[in-house]
Amino acid sequence: MDCDISDYYLLGDQPVTCGICGARTSFDEEEDGKQLHRCMNSECGYRFFAVTENG
């Protein structure tokens, strides 16, 4: 896991999109249930975690 990622977003009903440019994201599920998302827009590349409200 990268220590330089400090932004967290809550998972909801809608697909997660980039908090910077709004593009779609790809993600990897972490062992603790968090999702590490990466913006698919090559000009953006923003990375952040998405978590459940309980997580």
Q: What's this, in brief?
A:
The protein is mostly beta strands and 55 residues long. It has strands spanning 8-10, 25-29, 35-39, 47-51.
Order of helices and strands: EEEE
Strand content: 25-35%
Which structural class should the secondary elements be placed in? mainly beta
The helix tally amounts to 0
* Main sheet attributes: strand count, strand direction, barrel closure: 4 strands, mixed
Distance between the termini: 17 Å
Order of adjacent strands in the largest pleated sheet: 1-4-3-2
Q: How much helicity do the residues have?
A: under 10%
In total, how many beta strands? 4
What coarse outline follows from CA principal-axis ratios? globular
Radius of gyration: 11 Å
Could you name the ranges where pLDDT drops below 50 across 5 or more consecutive residues?
Answer: none
Provide the residue-averaged pLDDT: 90
Summarize the structure in words.
By secondary structure, the protein is mainly beta. The protein is 0% helix and 33% strand. The protein has no helices and four strands. Strands 1-4-3-2 form a four-stranded mixed β-sheet, with no helix packed on it. The radius of gyration is 11 Å and the shape is globular.
In terms of topology, how is this protein built?
Layout: E1 8-10, E2 25-29, E3 35-39, E4 47-51
Parallel strand pairs: 1-4
Antiparallel strand pairs: 2-3, 3-4
